[in-house]
Each structure stands twice: as structure tokens, then as C-alpha cells.
Amino acid sequence: MTDQPDRAMRSTYRPGEWFGIFGEHATVVIPPTEKSRVAALWELVDAGAGFDEALDALIASGLRELPGFVLVSERDGETKVVLRGAARATFTTADESVELEGSSATTWVERSLQDVTRMVVEVSGDSDAADLPIGVGLVRISRIDQAAYDEEREQETATVLPGDDGAGAGDAPDDEVSGLVESTGSEEPAGESEPVSMADLPTGLMPAIDEDHDGLTRSGGVDPAPAEPREPGVASRPVARLSFSSGDAVDVDRAVVVGRAPEARRATSSDDPLLVTVPSPNLEISSTHLEVRPGAGADHGSAVVTDLGSTNGTVIVQPGLEPEELQPGVAVQLLPGAIIDLGDGVTIRVATP
Q1: CB-CB contact of 28 with 70 (8 Å)
Q2: pTM to 2 decimal places
Q3: 135 backbone φψ class: left, alpha, beta (φ>0; ψ -120 to 50)
Q4: How is residue 300 annotated by DSSP?
Q5: For the chain, what percentages of helix, strand and coil (3-state, to nearest 5) are there?
Q6: How confident is the model at residue 305 (pLDDT cuts 50, 70, 90)?
Q7: Nearest-angstrom CA–CA distance, 89 and 123
Q8: Quick check: helix, strand or coil at residue 265?
């Protein structure tokens, strides 16, 4: 982690009951009822997850299982926010002030704003506690305030870990979840912001198991490392043609990365991949869902498909074979006539080029 988080805003929080997870590229707030999900979300956000990855993890078990949440991401002057349930947020820009209420929609409220100079997020009742600085970390909150950095007031970032004050992690009360707090500013007196014991966090580090569009059980979570080494991605000629249910068709002469908002950096191949965006109105398809590329070694001359750690998984049906659910990071050779099912009604048919 860097001394100063990669965000254009200075953050403070007011202690409360909700969990606030602050990362370099995203801030996630969830209610106290979702304590079992804190560890997985902290691991994801602390690893540098952005807006799409954090949203995929939040909705992995379905919206009905998540009564409320706030997700905010700031990058390159753009602030994205999604909120649901008993949460409200106010954003100030040079041109306007925007107020959002999570309870005003049956699903969630989503906005994208440019050049935000201040943000206030409130998730519980008024609190008399003092506002405390936060950089990157995990704390219990009732309110978040973010404002543009004031260079004259910036101080060095201090890292507070369980036990730094001489007390062991086990000294924290059982009903408190705290722990890693990298705060910007001076340390607060003991008792005003009690350290969180990581021993209180759930032992599982993966989001909840979900049953998805085809009835198969899938697990979501942090993208796994590819099982295979990165291969040269460009073939001398196409090894397959992919026909999408949307009507698009592409040839596989290099890596083809497919998703709701695919990112080239997630490809397993070394050359620039072809990015294919597919619709997903119910958000069943991950932002970067899977990759199809020319095979190497025993798979030379064929196309192989790899699930890139998608939230809801991928199913393939090969000619003469039973449906198979892909294991994240494991490449599977594709036969002509195979059907790849990404969910949300989106399928890909594999044919000879």
C-alpha cells in the first residue's frame, strides 16, 4: 500500500454500526447484519478491486439477501455510486448538488458524476461521536465525509494494527469487527475508535454460494490466478469462430475477452486481446467473465475457454458430452458446435472459422 491512497478525496468517518471498507479504488459500506461477508469484501477491496469487481461480489448471492449497501468508486475525475436500502448520499460538484436515497428504488440507485468535490454518506441515525480520519482500512461507521485534499493539512499516514497499543487482538469485544485501519492524521485517544479484532472476522474468505440462471451452484469471489502460464496470444490463422446470441461474430486468432465491461489486463495471453461486451440486464454476467483464445501444446490448432473467476460461473455444452461447469482459471478445449452459456440469456456458439 502507498502512503496516500489513490483517491482524489480525503475521507473521515463517524463511528457507528455499519461496516465501512475503504480501499484504494473503492469504498463499500454494508449493514451489521452482513458481518459474515466482511472478510471476503475486505480481501477483495484491499487487493485493489474497482467498481465492477466490488459490485459483482456484493450481488453474488442476490439482491434479496442484501438489504442495503453503498459502493463508491473514484477514478480519473469520475465518481460512481450505487446504493440500496437505508442509505443516503449527497454529492457536490462545481455545478450541482445531488442527493440520492437508497430506499427510493426497489433494486438500487446508481449514478456517475464528474469532478465531485465533496461527498457525504449516511447509513444510520445521528451519532455524537467525533469524526475520525481514514485512508485504507476496515472500520464501523455511521457516516462518511469526503472532501478534496487540502495540501497544507495533509499529514503522514499512520498504520494501526491490532496489538499496536499493547493489547492483543483477542482483547476486542466479540461483537466488534475492526482491524486493519490505515488512517490519515493523528492517532485518536484509546476508547474513541476501538481497534477491530480480525479474530472476530468469519473464517471463510469467499462470498456466499449462489444458485444461478441454470440451477447450478456457483461460487463467487476473488479472481483466481490462471492455472496456466501466459501464452503468446496471436495465431497465424483463426482457430474458431464465435457466434454470439446477440448476433455478433468474431474469429479467434488471439485472446477474446468477454464480459459486461471486459478489461484487457485480465487476459491470460501476452498480446492485446479482443474485448467483446455483452448485455447483462440482470448483472448475472461479470464485468470480465471469460476468455477464449488459441490453444497451445496439446490444444494447438483448437480454441480453449477459461472462466476468469466470474461471479456466477460459465457452463459449456460440447457435442456428445454432458454440460460442464468451468472451473475458474482452468482452460478447456472447445469442439466445433460447442455452446458457451454465460447467463442472462447470453450464449456463444463455437464453429470452425
Answers
A1: yes
A2: 0.47
A3: alpha
A4: B
A5: 10, 40, 50
A6: very high
A7: 9
A8: helix
